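Model the whole thing, not chain by chain.
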Amino acid sequence: MIPTLFGVLLITFLISHVVPGDAAQLIAGPRATPEIIQRIREEYGLDKPLHIQFFMYISQVLRGDLGKSIRTRRPVGADIRAFFPATFELTTTAMLLAVLFGIPLGVISAVYRDRWPDHLSRVFSVIGVSMPIFWLGLLLLFLFYIRLGILPGPGRISGDPPAHLTGLYLLDSLLTGNWRALGDAALHLVLPAFTLAFAVLARITRMTRSSMLEALGQDYVRTARAKGLMERWVVTRHALRNALIPTLTVIGLSYGELLGGAVATELIYAWPGMTHYVVGSMTSLDFPAVMGVTLVIAIIYITVNLLVDLTYALVDPRIRY
Amino acid sequence: MKRMWLLVGIGILVLGVGSLGADDVLVMGVTAEPETLDPHVTVDNNSWRAIYYCYDRLVEYEGGTTKLRPGLAESWEISDDGLTYTFHLRKGITFIDGTPFNAEAVKFNFERLFAIGKGPAGTFEFIKSVEVVDEYTVKFTLHAPFAPALSAFATDQGCIVSPGVMEHEVNGDWGQDWLAEHTAGTGPFYAAEWIHGMRLVLKRNDNYWGEPAKLAQVELRYVPEPEDLRMLLEKGEIDIAEKLTVDQIKSLKGVPGIRVFEGPSFSCHYIYLNCQRPYLNDVRVRRAISYAIDYEGIVDYIWQGTAVRMEGPVPIGFAEHIPVYQYPYDPDRARALLKEAGYEKGFTLRLMHSPVVPEWRQMAIVVQQNLADIGIKVQIESYAWATLRAKLDKGDFDMSFGYWTPDYADADMFTWFWFYSENWGLPGNRAWYKNEVMDDLVTAQRVETDPEKRQRLFEGIQWLAVSDAPYVYLVQTKYQLPMREWVKGYVYNPMLLNMPNFPDIYIER
Amino acid sequence: MWRSRLAVLGAAIVLALVVVAIFAPWIAPYSPTRINLRERLQPPSGKHLFGTDDAGRDILSRVIYGSRVTLRICALVVGLTLVIGTLLGLVSGFFGGWVDELVMRVSDVFLAFPALILAMAIAAALGPSLENAIVAMVAIWWPRYARVTRGQVLSIREIDFVAAARAAGASSFRIMLRHILPNCISPVVVQATLDLGEVVLTAATLSFIGFGAQPPTPEWGAMVSVGRNFLRDYWWYTTFPGLAILITVMGFNLLGDAVRDILDPRLRRGP
């Protein structure tokens, strides 16, 4: 893991420094005097050779200092802490939606194989993984917000946000008993979460369906059926449990997809999250922010993958590391 | 049991919806966040919008006019030679942090402005020194007489900042880090909360020395996409929306409940031609480009009647404006000029724009086509606002769209800044243009006290500006601000573009 | 039966795409780049089947030419990643040792980022253009092919005919090319076909965000991005290019599924 992290740091550093142009001047802003620019150059170590800057950066990061954003003039760490909850709330809700709807859909599809529920769900699956998220988001926004007006528009909340405890609006409103904020935030979460979940939902449905089919065809199922157990019992107790194992992998692997999909989703719904911040930083060539956030995102991604591997090892008795 | 939970759930959701719009809270949607709240650092309209009414200035604009009235200074005298301005300050005022307002505070304010030395300091370059005469009298001495000097004090750069910021100073930064996120003024509002990426909340200063604001709270909500902004306005979730596109405003005009304010403005959109670059350093090429543009198409179809074509650099409506030559749309003549300059084979130029002004992209496509017709290949590049400005400041571009609004109603704003060779880059001369004759003209008008002589100087400047064509003069736009009908009290001031007068606005449903 | 119907549908879509791209100048009723301000933002009609955009350009023609852009992106990205990834995977698997370690570590680092995030970062750093977006996509995808190839190489490296060739005195290079490479092609091709849909989606997303195609290139994702600000009153601007993306990606995915089923039944269970 360590060499990978080092490599991650190296790559983010290199990417940010490919950008031509005088970073010191960007930081200093227009009309800054040459003295100020020189002072900034020294302060940020921009006058040193690249490899020295890299080691300075590593020692900085190890101390927990991710630098200062040029755009917001705040420490990158503070920005990340500010924007992370929004992304977390969005991706977690999307994941839950995908699992809550995907697994049952997959089961239904498998049980009613080759009949109309199956066909419908398979069509939906193909569309789901082929759908450009940004387009889906716009369509949903147009339909439910502009035309029908039954869901609120872009943004996380219309009125005042709840008191800040975790930054997760649903949780914070619950904990402070702020019902208005709860409803407000929940409604705002519907479209973005669904948009983000769409592709993953489709994937989970597909995966569940095929592993269910495989499980349903197994000997032990036939045995259970022969024993005269109820169909429902057979399905849920025996087949589903075994079918869930590969589905688990899909769920874990989808997390990276969710992070990527969050980029488009947050842009469409004006969601003030981390990926929205990353895009803004990239377009403004705010290299400290780009380095910091990309690093954090990579760490999150690696961690999640690690957790998935571990869970997989725990759940699947066939695998032993 | 299950049904009950369902009802509870629905109930909560319904509650969430029906909670919009208290009558003393104004929500304004903006497409860009302020870059900082420090008036001594920023020259960005987006920041001024939030800053302006958290502070006061020595003099203020009178309502919607360009006339000046007393602000923090109740009266003032200007010496006969125009070199000394003495202000008599109001008494009994305190800054929001408790520091008393007096001549020492004013002196500190300008010290800070010059020490930081960023964009806003340029507005007050004409000042040589600031002296405290007595507790409530302050004297400014100028390097040379400067006609628009008094107006400069009414701009955002003239906001008076409390000496109390020094308590938050870190590493000799004069409190910039702190003031970037807070306000420390005497104004009718103060910055209460800034959730980056979401909203900035201004609350009423209940200890304001003057007439208190009618609104208790102003929320500047950040909505990066104009279409989202427009939808929120239509649904009544926000009360005022700015920077909507021409197309959007056109369709909003018919919507019940929405009123679109329209007023003349002096904002101009034009193209900077980097005169230090190959090809563009040849005046024939610049003139060729000026002949190649379909101005009428742009005005009629992209701006759809909300703008007029610019006539030279000085806006129509300014006293100094004279009707100068306007390049007609003549591609043949353009091609002939290019041939004469030896560029018959054509060449490639890069054209920058930013999504901050949606009409730029549309104009860029037209310009691309127009120039392709005369043999110039145009590569369009879109940059974030800050990046674009940085590139302008370094001269790292060929052509770029630009936008300029005057801080005060004097043609100096459109000439000295645009053409003086010492102003290369962001300060104003974004064409990186240098012409010694022009330099003489613009510096002369700055100190000329005889109005007739000054006008003749401006005439010369305008003719030379068109003939040398360092800019492609495109359009002068009307100012349009869509808002809900329940927003009352809005007064438009062409000098305070993008800065609605929050203290006077109120909501009446 | 159903399966084969879907496969046929996929193939038909992809074929249609290729045909449209090749014959674009003959199929498209107007020029995709000629502006006509007088016909700005017209709704779909007999004259303009998909309507016009904010510069008066015919959207149908732009969508048609957009197929060329899409195919070009696919060809370049998949082609380059195949070459680079396969080469690296070959070398890595064959020589083993520190070469293998190095290549695998590097690919680990690239795989440590969510694909889109890294692609965005690279595209942003290099500058907004279609070429740079392609470079960015190649950079994030080669690890996949390298791994697949390497896996194949490892599994056949020790097989008898390789040992025989060695004994006969053939050089490493020869062995790699003549004996090993042909056996790696199959899974890599499968992977490539499966990835085509994702390539189109990623390219469209990059352009949508602003890091890909620049005007006047008629790239579908870029068109959706611009059309977004005309969504309310001019729905056709976003709808048709987006539909084109959806259908194209569907075609590639269905085709990819079919190819996978045929060539590698082992993987049928996969996502």
